[in-house]
């Protein structure tokens, strides 16, 4: 299963998610950002590639829908409601990501 994590600049939240969930061999994980200044900017190719798209905030859903509505047909997009209050690999961010993502996909108990 292919997971795409999206935040604004792909520097802290989505990049942390990619780093953390890449350890799970049953998932192929990428991350991107919605802003022009993003480290890796989300493209239609990312959307087409992903089975599930996890966004950090509702504004990311809106931005993706505005640009890639056609590519989103039959795609599952989930908002994790994680504010831009964290830095890369912040312990609280990691725990929040694990907790919220585990509501939607299977994650090993010892992870």
What is this structure, in a nutshell?
The protein has 111 residues and is α/β, with parallel strands linked by helices. It has helices at residues 13-21, 44-49, 58-68, 91-101; strands spanning 2-7, 28-33, 52-55, 76-79.
Structure write-up:
- It contains 4 helices and 4 strands.
- Strand 1, helix 1 and strand 2 (28-33) form a beta-alpha-beta unit.
- It is globular and about 40 Å long.
- A 4-stranded parallel sheet has the order 2-1-3-4.
- Helix content is 33%, strand content 18%.
- It starts with a strand and ends in a 10-residue tail after the last helix.
- The mean pLDDT is 97.
- The longest helix has 11 residues, at 58-68.
Question: Can you lay out the helices and strands and say which pair or pack?
Answer:
Blueprint: E1 2-7, H1 13-21, E2 28-33, H2 44-49, E3 52-55, H3 58-68, E4 76-79, H4 91-101
Parallel strand pairs: 1-2, 1-3, 3-4
The rough form would be described as globular
Q: Determine the N-to-C terminus distance.
A: 18 Å
Order of helices and strands: EHEHEHEH
Tell me what portion of residues adopts beta-strand conformation. 15-25%
Compute the number of strand runs: 4
Structural class: alpha/beta
Q: Helical element count? A: 4
Q: Which regions contain 5 or more consecutive residues with pLDDT less than 50?
A: none
Mean pLDDT: 97
Rg, rounded, reads 13 Å
Please bin the fraction of helical residues: 25-40%
Q: Main sheet, how many strands, which sense, barrel?
A: 4 strands, parallel
**Strand order across the largest sheet:** 2-1-3-4
């Amino acid at each position: 299963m292919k997971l795409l994590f999206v935040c604004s600049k792909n520097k802290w939240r989505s990049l942390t998610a990619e780093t953390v969930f890449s350890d799970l061999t049953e998932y192929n994980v990428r991350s991107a950002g919605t802003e022009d200044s993003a480290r890796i900017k989300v493209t239609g190719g990312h959307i087409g590639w992903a089975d599930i798209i996890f966004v950090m905030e509702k504004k990311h859903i809106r931005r993706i829908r505005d640009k890639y509505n056609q590519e989103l047909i039959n795609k599952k997009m989930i908002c994790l409601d994680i504010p831009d209050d964290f830095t890369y690999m912040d312990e609280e961010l990691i725990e929040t990501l694990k907790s919220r993502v585990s509501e939607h996909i299977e994650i090993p108990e010892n992870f």
